Recover the amino acids of this structure.
């Protein structure tokens, strides 16, 4: 029975949300690879982190359906460092000997997966949005957008193990195995949770070799107002704003709506917005209820970052801009005339 | 500091979807008359390399491109941006090589050229968005690798790096030799070459290496497939955008708000 291993790195002391989506991808792949067995049986989740942090994360992975959870915990793993985390990932695979290894396509997964593939002699497809199984019932078909999202490709690897990274916000996190009763956690569940302990994998970093790369400091982004990742509404600006002043208007619309501010790559490259606000294939992947794109032409590269948004509104002077083909509501007008009026109107309606 | 920058020539990612075509037989995009450009993150990598050379006041920047004869245009652009040298790795077998085959080729070229303190890549190519070649080359050369670097400063024989991560960034000190993959930020937007430098670039030599020159067995690389393309297709876009009407900003704003209220998103 082919085993599927998911590998997640603790991020800022927590299990990152894409780790659960990756577990969801593993469970549905398992159901396709081994249709006659319970999906959880062949799914192993590994969590890598510093002392004390991983136990709760491991428990969460088990509660969401991982059949087996292993932890690589060591004081040298308290902060993400590529070389050490790679060794930890190798240690996890040495125990599991999985046929398929999945990472989230977050900053740790994108960093680790290619090098782990090289070390294991496996083959990797990055940034997948769907996984399927070939007619041979062992080869994983990995589906990913290419050419900036203008096309989709179906890929596979003849090597073993088969590795993939999963694009955040494209797979569902599995629900908890037993829902809490309405008055809180059921007693049997909390007992089971208290009794749960992951399998700890022994880990000793390679001694003797001086580290060629040393983490000096990790700086958490400071975002004024609402964080892009969990915002219900996002207002983004692009090249069409024409300058940094335009971003002021975007920001004031965002604060009127209680929304987060985003930017296209063009606006970041122009220096109008910091890189941590970049939305798109190579920026943040977001899934707000409402996405308002101001002065954004709608390059596929950008739109890939908002493909899971529920509603998209485009404001652009060019009625032929590609974004109008992808938006639900369009305003073909100069943002300079629309945004101030929009802020005023929203203040009436929302009452802020 | 001697820096190699590996660049890939790709179909212009700005090509609008209506002009974009694929050939389902070769499983590739149709280049036809579409413009070819340096992959955008590779231009950011070139910019980081050129700034490092300027800041450290010594060393040279070598642009390396593996690909068909058109890749020479990409190398000319790199020379126009003031790269010191250009190397074109060219072989008919490239048509059939995947990320790992290209990584083996580039690793062999880097070893043969020799003497690099730093090897830079864009974080991912703007066509297939694999984001693997830099990391795979690092593994083949057994060099440390820092990915998603936006800024690099020389500091006492080491480098101070800023690495972009989820929800923030990391400051990393690194000792060459090493591999970096570069992501964009406002400090590394590629410079525009002057007309004069563009003209001068045509007079500079481009060194050409074949796989045989590198001692690489092309058929073995093709046989050791890493990834296979099974199919490629253009997804159907369902476009039914409702244009909000109005004579002026106030009317447009009022009608937009009304529709948003209808949709229950406000």
């Amino acid at each position: 029975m082919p085993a599927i291993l998911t590998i997640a790195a603790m991020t800022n002391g927590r299990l990152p949300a894409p780790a659960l989506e990756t577990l969801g991808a593993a469970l549905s792949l398992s159901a396709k690879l081994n249709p006659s067995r319970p999906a959880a049986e062949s799914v192993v989740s590994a969590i890598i982190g510093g002392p004390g942090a991983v136990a709760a994360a491991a428990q969460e992975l088990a509660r969401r359906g991982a059949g087996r959870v292993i932890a690589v915990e060591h004081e040298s793993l308290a902060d993400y460092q590529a070389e050490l985390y790679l060794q930890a990932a190798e240690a996890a695979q040495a125990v599991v000997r999985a046929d398929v290894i999945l990472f989230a396509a977050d900053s740790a997964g994108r960093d680790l997966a290619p090098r782990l593939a090289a070390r294991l002699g496996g083959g990797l497809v990055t940034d997948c949005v769907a996984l399927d199984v070939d007619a041979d019932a062992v080869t994983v078909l990995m589906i990913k957008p290419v050419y900036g999202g203008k096309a989709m490709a179906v890929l596979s690897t003849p090597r073993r193990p088969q590795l993939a990274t999963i694009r955040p916000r494209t797979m569902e996190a599995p629900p908890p195995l037993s829902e809490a009763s309405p008055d809180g956690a059921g007693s049997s569940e909390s007992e089971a949770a208290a009794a749960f302990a992951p399998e700890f994998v022994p880990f000793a970093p390679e001694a003797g070799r001086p580290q060629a790369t040393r983490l000096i400091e990790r700086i958490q982004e400071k975002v004024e107002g609402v964080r892009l990742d969990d915002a219900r509404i996002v207002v983004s600006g692009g090249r069409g704003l024409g300058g940094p002043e335009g971003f002021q208007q975007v920001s004031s619309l965002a604060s009127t709506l209680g929304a987060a501010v985003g930017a296209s790559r063009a606006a970041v490259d122009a220096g109008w917005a910091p890189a941590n606000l970049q939305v798109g294939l190579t920026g943040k992947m977001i899934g707000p209820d409402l996405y308002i794109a101001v002065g954004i032409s709608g390059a596929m590269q950008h739109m890939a970052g908002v493909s899971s948004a529920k509603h998209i509104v485009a404001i652009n002077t060019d009625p032929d801009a590609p974004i109008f083909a992808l938006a639900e509501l369009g305003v073909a007008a100069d943002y300079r005339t629309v945004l101030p009026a929009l802020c005023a109107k929203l203040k009436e309606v929302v009452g802020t | 500091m001697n820096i190699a920058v590996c660049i890939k020539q790709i179909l212009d990612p700005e090509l609008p979807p209506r002009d974009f075509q694929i050939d389902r037989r070769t499983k590739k995009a149709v280049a036809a008359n579409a413009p070819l450009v340096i992959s955008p993150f590779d231009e950011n990598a070139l910019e980081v390399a050129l700034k490092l050379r300027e800041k450290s006041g010594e060393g040279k920047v070598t642009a390396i491109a593996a690909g068909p004869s058109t890749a020479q245009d990409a190398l000319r652009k790199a020379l126009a941006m003031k790269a010191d040298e250009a190397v074109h790795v060219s072989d008919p077998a490239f048509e059939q090589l995947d990320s790992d085959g290209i990584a083996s080729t580039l690793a062999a070229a880097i070893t043969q050229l020799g003497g690099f303190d730093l090897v830079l890549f864009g974080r991912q190519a703007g066509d297939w968005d694999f984001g693997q070649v830099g990391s795979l080359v690092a593994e083949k050369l057994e060099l440390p690798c820092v990915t998603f670097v936006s800024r690099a400063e020389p500091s006492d024989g080491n480098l101070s790096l800023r690495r972009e991560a989820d929800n923030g960034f990391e400051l990393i000190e690194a000792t060459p030799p090493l591999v970096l993959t570069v992501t964009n930020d406002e400090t590394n937007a590629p410079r525009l070459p002057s007309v004069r430098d563009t003209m001068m670039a045509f007079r500079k030599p481009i060194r050409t290496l074949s796989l045989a020159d590198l001692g690489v067995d092309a058929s073995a690389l093709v046989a050791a497939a890493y990834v296979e393309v099974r199919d490629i297709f253009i997804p159907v876009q369902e476009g039914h955008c409702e244009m909000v009407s109005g004579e002026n900003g106030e009317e447009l704003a009022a009608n937009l708000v009304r529709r948003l209220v209808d949709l229950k998103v406000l």
